[in-house]
């Protein structure tokens, strides 16, 4: 056997030592320790991207509903678009407190989740959408959060306050307009007279709108023309005479106006008993506030209220030297209620005698 043959046989017999195997295993373990977390994160990010796709579909559905004339608060997201069953496979679920088009959010199913984060959107009645997300404690998903929400990834207290204010405006607008159209389209007695609806300029329920039996009129003159056309001039004259009395009463029937019923409040026909009573309560409350202000400017001192009546009539205030305090503590610790006590001289007995300054009781 020659030397080359012997070397080949030695090579064939040669194997790895225990030390070499241990080193290889250690290296493979280190690589796996680096790779596996990265793989898990990639999977999580892919799931988040799938959830974003579902949310975009939901937002499109919401915008379609708004174009059809619906309020964002009234538009639910269809389960065929987004559902807990679908989201569950991605590790998410719908947030119970935010599941209308006005505010729609999904959150991780696992409450202890540190990588996946809460995300969603808000839409107002103008169809303006704001995508929002709350970043997770693990910064590895921060870019994904910013890709969805931009500067709204991590909402500041100031931004949240702005959104809360806008949400309140939307709620007030819905309440105002719902009330107006319920009055206008009342099947038993369609609205007639003036009623406020939402004013988008002032952002308040202050846009006076005239209607005659369920039909909106341009102004008060158009209302009177419509009333005259249906009931005649005599009805209009009698109605005007009742309004000029500035009384609050109803239902009132005027013979010249057929079976029509009137609900007067300080010169206006409010159309319904509910609207009349609301007008009456508002004016009673306004009178309470006015009387209290007159007391403040008129030198009243001490506790004021409560006054029997609606709303702010029941408030209690403390008044002193033109100032008004909401609590008794503020009143008693204010400069205007502090008095200097005159004590009687100690060298002689001085019973209470108002005519003598040294014996006058000044402080309680």
SSE order and pairing:
Layout lengths: L2 H11 L4 H50 L16 H5 L3 E9 L2 E6 L9 E6 L5 E6 L7 H8 L7 H28 L8 E7 L4 E9 L2 E3 L2 H12 L1 H12 L3 E6 L7 E5 L2 E2 L3 H25 L4 E3 L12 E4 L2 E3 L2 H5 L32
Antiparallel strand pairs: 1-2, 2-3, 3-4, 5-6, 6-7, 8-9, 9-10, 11-12, 12-13
Helix pairs in contact: 6-7
Please describe what this structure looks like:
With 364 residues, this protein is an alpha+beta fold. Among the domains are: 27-155, no CATH class; 169-246, no CATH class. It has nine helices and 13 strands. It has helices at residues 3-13, 18-67, 84-88, 142-149, 157-184, 220-231, 233-244, 273-297, 328-332; strands at 92-100, 103-108, 118-123, 129-134, 193-199, 204-212, 215-217, 248-253, 261-265, 268-269, 302-304, 317-320, 323-325. The strands form four sheets. Strands 1-2-3-4 form a four-stranded antiparallel sheet. A three-stranded antiparallel sheet has the order 5-6-7. Strands 8-9-10 form a three-stranded antiparallel sheet, with helices on one face. Helix 6 crosses helix 7. The protein is elongated, with a radius of gyration of 38 Å. It starts with a helix and ends in a 32-residue tail after the last helix. The model is unreliable at 344-349 and 358-364 (pLDDT under 50).
- Order of helices and strands, N to C? HHHEEEEHHEEEHHEEEHEEEH
The mean pLDDT is 81
Per DSSP, the total helix count is 9
Termini gap? 130 Å
Largest sheet: spatial strand order: 1-2-3-4
Specify the helix fraction band.
40-55%
Low-confidence sequence ranges: 344-349, 358-364
What's the total count of β strands? 13
Structural class: alpha+beta
